Amino acid sequence: MNIVLLNGSPRAAGNTTEALKMLAEALPAGSNVETVNVAALKIGGCKSCFACKQNGGTCVQKDDAEEVLAKVVAADALVFATPVYFMGITAQLKALIDRFFAKVDKLQAASKKVAVIAIGGTPPPSGQYDLIAGNVQAICAFLGWEFAGQYVAGSFQGDEAKTAAAKKEIAALAAKL
What we know:
Layout: E1 2-7, H1 15-26, E2 32-37, H2 51-54, H3 65-74, E3 77-84, H4 91-98, H5 104-109, E4 113-120, H6 127-143, E5 146-154, H7 160-176
Parallel strand pairs: 1-2, 1-3, 3-4, 4-5
Helix pairs in contact: 1-7
């Protein structure tokens, strides 16, 4: 299974990165897992110029999005992972998602399982997590993908009990992919 983990965190050692490490460790042996640190890449937002619709799905912007989108198209499973700064996914991850527009035909033709990891300063339940999961569920519905589940939490690093609970919940999410 080819699994792409899209890390929308600009913090290299934050909760989101740690959660993705836990997820990668819990995935079945033999899985081809690649973490893409979206925030470290140069990805411009969609300009709505529709040039991609004229030229076979290639965006006119020359940045890192095309390479990442090729990985997304080829993936069997996809994880959107984001810290929550203010009621939604990070701007870096949103820029990449908006660029899905160029590849929508290929994305709709490829079935995928999709999960969300969202970690914020506020522990659940909180409307911010509902917004993020709802957004990804809407993307899945539009593209014909299967929403496999989510892990949402407040910060857990530095708290042994919270970290142990996170590992358990993330392993359960990995099993759904």
